[in-house]
Amino acid sequence: MADLCDIAGALAERERAAILAGLTRPAAEGADACQVCGEEIDAARRAACPGAVRCADCQNDHERRRDRRLRTGV
Ligand SMILES: [Zn+2]
């Protein structure tokens, strides 16, 4: 049975891989417009998050829903 350190290590590794995948993705794969609301993605956000496909508002909303799903399992 995996202990807490194993689980934390696996999560950190997965997170790191996801970040690296995002960083190595060509910038052209990022979106100029949010794929949710269609608004232009702020240049600062695109620079900070290459490959971002949602504007900050929609990303926050997405993460809130994802966190709620993870907490409640719904
Ligand atoms: Zn949006």
TrEMBL record:
Zn-finger segments (dksA C4-type): 34-58
Domain of life: Bacteria
The protein's name: TraR/DksA family transcriptional regulator
Pfam families recorded: zf-dskA_traR
UniProt-listed PROSITE patterns: ZF_DKSA_2
GO MF annotation list: zinc ion binding
InterPro entries noted in UniProt: Znf_DskA_TraR (IPR000962)
Residues of the Zinc finger DksA/TraR C4-type domain: 34-64
Keywords: Metal-binding, Zinc, Zinc-finger
